[in-house]
Design a protein that fits this description.
Length: 296
């Protein structure tokens, strides 16, 4: 039977070894997301049968992330089903489109549903870097306003992390209103961002910082998922200048120097404004995720 436990920073090298074997593009298939959000989602891991298994939530809200590594679909699903049955938990698996199709072929009693709110938006790195054509006309206008300022871009590193942490508090003052409906969610997110910055090197993140008149106005960071895909976990900007978000987005992708074909900017969680913003950058596809259950 699988034996789950809390994920730890010391698990990074082993988890990343298993992630590379599967080469999935989803944002959940990154060690940084796994560790930094593990307390919030109640995520636990288990190694076995060539896989790293993950489960989130608890009780009736338990969900299993399709495991990564070097084993067969039959083995992975059978192990999860047996664990769920023996533990008295629901057997709910989240998987990408390719794996979902394989599960449907191997398990006739499987049922699937598109998990739309958690589908990742995946963009062409060249599109984000060059912003060519009519579809990016509005973005170029925003950028032109920003580029009128005395701006600089630099890699995010130990030399400027303290300034980024300071910017987090400025961002909080601009965006978090005590007692508002979304105050709790934004505070949780910002706490994760700050912990991520403090463990930036240990997590192997790559990021960038945008300044105007030498003051930090935006930062971003993330990590690779698949060999051809970089996942942007965080992008924060202050409101002092028009086009700051567009500029940090573009300059960071430029700094990656063509190492990745795709940029995964994660999901919208069903938030209407966020969905509109992500669609405005013209994703080349959604990394679809499906919820899989089984007939009793």
């Amino acid at each position: 039977m699988l034996e789950f436990r809390k994920v730890e920073l010391a698990d990074r090298s082993r988890v990343e070894e298993y992630l590379r074997k599967s080469d999935f593009r989803g944002c959940e298939y990154t060690f940084g997301n796994l560790l930094m959000w593990s307390d919030f989602y109640g995520t636990e891991i288990c190694f076995g049968d060539g896989f790293c298994f993950e489960k989130t939530g608890g009780g009736a809200d338990t969900m299993f992330i399709y495991p990564y590594g070097g084993g067969s679909v039959e083995t992975a699903v059978t192990q999860i089903r047996e664990y769920a049955a023996q533990s008295g938990l629901p057997c709910l698996i989240c998987a990408n489109k390719v794996i979902t199709q394989e599960i449907l072929q191997k398990f006739p009693d499987a049922k699937t549903e598109l998990y739309r709110d958690f589908c990742d938006y995946v963009y062409s790195a060249d599109d984000l870097k060059n912003l060519k054509g009519k579809k990016f006309h509005a973005k170029r206008n925003h950028l032109n306003r920003f580029y009128e300022n005395d701006w600089t871009y630099e890699p995010l590193s130990a030399a400027n992390i303290s300034e980024c942490l300071t910017m987090c508090e400025l961002w909080r003052a601009e965006n978090v209103t005590d007692g508002s409906e979304d105050a709790k969610d934004k505070t949780i997110e910002l706490d994760v961002v700050k912990r991520s910055l403090k463990l930036f090197d240990e997590l192997g993140y790559t990021g960038g910082v945008l300044r105007v008149d030498q003051a930090v106005q935006a930062f971003t960071f993330g990590e690779r998922s698949a060999a051809d895909t970089f996942v942007v976990h965080v992008e924060k900007a202050l409101r002092n200048y028009q086009g700051t978000y567009a500029a940090i987005n573009r300059e960071f992708v430029r700094s990656l120097n063509g190492r990745y074909k795709y940029i995964n900017r994660e999901e919208d969680t069903g938030a209407e404004n966020l969905r509109k913003a992500k669609l405005s950058y013209n994703p080349v596809f959604l990394e679809e995720k499906f919820l899989i259950t089984f007939l009793e």
